[in-house]
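PT: before anyone asks, these are the final sequences, not the draft ones from last week. 1322 residues across everything. Please model them as a single complex and drop the result in this thread when it's through.
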Amino acid sequence: MPRAVSDGGESIDTDVASRTSSHRRVDSVHQHGHGYNVGVPPKKSLFAEFSDAVKETFFADDPLRQYKDLPRSKKIWLGLEQVFPVLGWGRNYSLGKFKGDLIAGLTIASLCIPQDIGYSKLANLPPQVGLYSSFVPPLIYAAMGSSRDIAIGPVAVVSLLLGTLLQNEIDPNTHPLEYSRLAFTATFFAGVTQAALGFFRLGFIIEFLSHAAIVGFMAGAAITIALQQLKGFLGIAHFTKKSDIVSVMKSVWGNVHHGWNWQTILIGASFLAFLLVAKYIGKKNKKLFWVSAIAPLISVIISTFFVYITRADKHGVAIVKNIKKGINPPSASLIYFSGPYLATGFRVGAVAGMIGLTEAIAIGRTFAALKGYQIDGNKEMVALGTMNIVGSMTSCYVATGSFSRSAVNYMAGCKTAVSNVVMATVVMLTLLLITPLFKYTPNAILSSIIISAVLGLIDYESAYLIWKVDKLDFLACLGAFIGVIFSSVEYGLLVAVAISLAKILLQVTRPRTALLGNLPRTTIYRNVEQYPDATKVPGVLIVRVDSAIYFTNSNYIKERILRWLRDEEEQQQDQKLSKIEFLIVELSPVIDIDTSGIHALEELLKALQKRKIQLVLANPGPVVIQKLRSAKFTDLIGEDKIFLTVSDAVKKFAPKVVDNV
Amino acid sequence: MPRAVSDGGESIDTDVASRTSSHRRVDSVHQHGHGYNVGVPPKKSLFAEFSDAVKETFFADDPLRQYKDLPRSKKIWLGLEQVFPVLGWGRNYSLGKFKGDLIAGLTIASLCIPQDIGYSKLANLPPQVGLYSSFVPPLIYAAMGSSRDIAIGPVAVVSLLLGTLLQNEIDPNTHPLEYSRLAFTATFFAGVTQAALGFFRLGFIIEFLSHAAIVGFMAGAAITIALQQLKGFLGIAHFTKKSDIVSVMKSVWGNVHHGWNWQTILIGASFLAFLLVAKYIGKKNKKLFWVSAIAPLISVIISTFFVYITRADKHGVAIVKNIKKGINPPSASLIYFSGPYLATGFRVGAVAGMIGLTEAIAIGRTFAALKGYQIDGNKEMVALGTMNIVGSMTSCYVATGSFSRSAVNYMAGCKTAVSNVVMATVVMLTLLLITPLFKYTPNAILSSIIISAVLGLIDYESAYLIWKVDKLDFLACLGAFIGVIFSSVEYGLLVAVAISLAKILLQVTRPRTALLGNLPRTTIYRNVEQYPDATKVPGVLIVRVDSAIYFTNSNYIKERILRWLRDEEEQQQDQKLSKIEFLIVELSPVIDIDTSGIHALEELLKALQKRKIQLVLANPGPVVIQKLRSAKFTDLIGEDKIFLTVSDAVKKFAPKVVDNV
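LR: through. Structure below.
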């Protein structure tokens, strides 16, 4: 049955329109063949419109859905389970699962201990702080997090970011206490930022960092971190504080004659070779992944023993020296809640927190997709935030999900977050019992371990795929990469975000338009460039606009349509074809229009009227038709110029052509 | 004839695909009925892709088109005509046209003289500078500009902007020379910015200021300007320098007991009443527009004469006092090309230049549309820029197109830019001969003239239309308005741009998706919300994605599709309908996809495979199909799952339903 165009207006004006439309209703059955007019959805009230928009923006996942029609006690339990997923999966926990978690937990513990010590150096913090951060945060996450595969702890990129941003404020060598106080402050605010983003359901903000930008940023950060390790690897005492490649290379070559220590290089290089071989084995044969997982710990043990026996530290081989024994001391009183460092801590914390989130969410989603379960981004952010807030009060610095350790966790067969608990227990025992044994661990080993770990962050396969698929995306990737290695981590980040956003805006400013033609023997109209068989309809120009029509592009779209028309008219003059009398604008892809867009359509209409060409619209969407009616553009163009499909419009205005079909 | 999907690959892999596809080609005739597969456009080379993008972004209007196939001398002449359109229209200039231009020129001259004096006070500059700016710039524009209706000179909003921004740097009362030097510097850089934007074809940048934002900004600026006039209108000597409404109202009421001057108020109020009545008459009867056009000059003459006779200036009525006689002195040597004010001048000039451009281009486009000729935005910018550069060297401040005077120019029957020449000549004669006569003009009259002029900038009809059409647009409008009146002009501008961009980004982050249903007795599939007649196909869920799939929305789109599926499955369980086996994603509106988007599709595919639901794509556009192939997603999903239309896909997977049609 044909549907009325009118939306049942109240004023006399609309009444007339509705009477007219019922007239047309009768004709339209004849005109359109199938008898459908363009539907106008019922107008929503302002409140409904607003609440729908809020719901779709902030509650896209419909979080309260499962609470429908449940008794109160059940609701409370479900609510608790929402905050502490452990209450859910804990009930079905079994010995079989624990076996998997135990092995995975032990494996990632062996990997995390040397990494933690190395990463804390990257953040200019004492080595035990790295270990602290692998004890408390994983325990909190195990109770609150929803990922089963993520391995929590300090990570290379965030450590580097924190280290460079904080040392701009306080010198960690001359003022170690103030520096660590500032680090705890930043950690606190990183947690607050993360939890707030999740709580206020603003998690979509991190999606403004595109995949391409992350690939470039990570690769740049990996190279920067590897370059920083040249200090420990070559045994250079006076090293630059800057992180860009030019300063670092200058520092490295400037020290070549009297700053390099051959014993250090020998130890570092041989163990780096060992680590890389282990990594290669683990990659070639997935069953031997544990070789690469325990290689770092083995390197630490062997090299520490070696240095202890040969006393190589007396020959200039730098060693870890002292790691404080005992578990995390409280640090809540150390956080700056006032004074000039409050703002700095907040700023640095917010940036580090966002990067931490991006990394953790990406990891969580990757492994969730592999195992086929869902991750709730916002809930995950609350868990990560809480863990960092608690961490900042127990002498930890920013922890998040680690790419390399999560992969090992997954491959070692972890089943639940209990593997994080196992890891935390091992780290606790290490802190309580064996930290003094790390005294003779050479720094070069830690550097080798970090270098071999961060090389995995360079995802050249993704970069190549990005290059193949989208050149502008690749530019964002390259921009982030170059920004990080030639300037600084923050700058690279800024470049990545800027290019990502510019790409969207450019797309919105210069959208595509296409000429449509008829696929012979069908009623289908398609882009003539994509379908060379598609034939143009004589006397009719059909243009499709492939974007929402907004102020940024409304003028361009108007002028582009007029240019299509001009080109076509010239071509038709050359070939002496019939004059164009109708311009059909296919609006299917036009999902929205604003006041500037309607202005542009009005101007297009005027320009066409001067040339005696009729403007016809095909298939406007619900939002577009509603707005065109609100602005009375439908009256201006005439309701009989708006069709359900291009085919309907052609049938009406060029019936001969269609008869030939 | 059916078309092959393969793009003629070279590797063995693609060969297999192409053989498979030729197999399918035979079936597809049977399957699809009409026998068309999704077309893959020939792949462009990197260079072609890049140069096409550059061309579409910067040379959308194809400026070199008219030079094709022409002899060299003709090309040079055309090139000159491009830069100086006067060479084109000048050849056909006639006495008939001059009659129109003369009347229009005289009318706008009578309007501009009092306005210029008033606006220069708004910019804290001596009154003659306003007149200078109505002499040189209009002459340059007449030779270079392409609009026939625009009236060039100082305008209220730019004067206010310049005045507030510059007085933050230098106090115009204590350091008048340095202040005017800075003003010329800003004017110079405003011109450079404008010309550069045009020359480098970056004109589209000004389109980032939406129509809604401009309406709000202009209304806010008008109210701010009117409030500023209370100083002259009430005769207050000590007035605040801030422009926000709170400071101004405080200043006004704080002076109520001893700061107001009743003689001034009497003169101001009576002439404001006269001006408003004249304006009302001009608006009611379009033929009497000249009443409102000459009312300001008449007010100035009468009030000056009145003050001269009564010597009201001795009773506290502030007067203009001294206007320097003679035409523009050179000022090139006054521009700061070095020193600390260079940067300030550049910053202020760039902002003022952009606002000036926005206003001039909007006016130019409006009147060009009314008379049905084209305006070239980029060329126009070069003209405006050159005119301001020359202006800055001849003691002018930033000039642009004035809304009110251009409307009068149009209504007075101007034919070409010669009306600007007439106006400039009158202003020149004024400067040479009669400036001393303005000595006794009361400031209150200038304030009344400005108030009555800027009231026209408050476009409440547009604001109401914006409210009706798009609530978010209205928010941008309101934000700009409130920002300007409660804080400052710059701040309001910033708010306007920020809201405009945020709106686009929000749209890109949370795009619409729709469930499609079949319109009975057709092969058309449409949004079930817009067309309640549309019926869902049992066992098949059809979802349309109404946006490009980018990193900002890829996760949302994936999860939203899964939510549609979940909702539908629940509904079907309740109603005991057949299980959903196919998910058709209609990609017609998806104009582009990036690597994150392809990832999201891969994850969607995995999630569906777990539930034993087949993913089917319908009508991917040229860019999308190319990228899906580059990323080998087409192999993953299977080429036989990609259809030309939803109807084809339904025919294949739910043939029974279609048979019933």
